[in-house]
Design a protein that fits this description.
It holds the Pfam family DUF7535. The protein is mainly α. It has a domain of 41 residues. 59% of the residues lie in helices and 0% in strands. The chain is elongated. The chain starts with 8 loop residues before the first helix and ends in a 6-residue tail after the last helix. The mean pLDDT is 80.
Length: 74
């Protein structure tokens, strides 16, 4: 084997050429994330009334089915 057999597996796994770095804020990626989030909000906002209507109708039909005793949920 090699000459550094006394090095444990953990020490061998972390051997690298570059030094370790500390955590630091990344303002440019933060702004990109906010831009993507706001873009999705702008795209989804027009769909919100349709989602609310579908949700309300599904709850209404579920309530009516439970009143008639024909509820199909297990």
């Amino acid at each position: 084997m090699s000459g550094d057999d006394s090095i444990t597996l953990t020490q061998r796994a972390y051997r690298t050429v570059t030094p370790g770095s500390k955590m630091h804020p990344n303002a440019s990626m933060d702004s990109i994330g906010w831009a993507i989030f706001l873009g999705l909000v702008v795209l989804m906002l027009p769909l919100l009334p349709f989602i609310a209507i579908v949700y309300t109708l599904s709850k209404l039909f579920g309530y009516l089915a439970a009143q008639r005793g024909t509820d199909t949920e297990p």
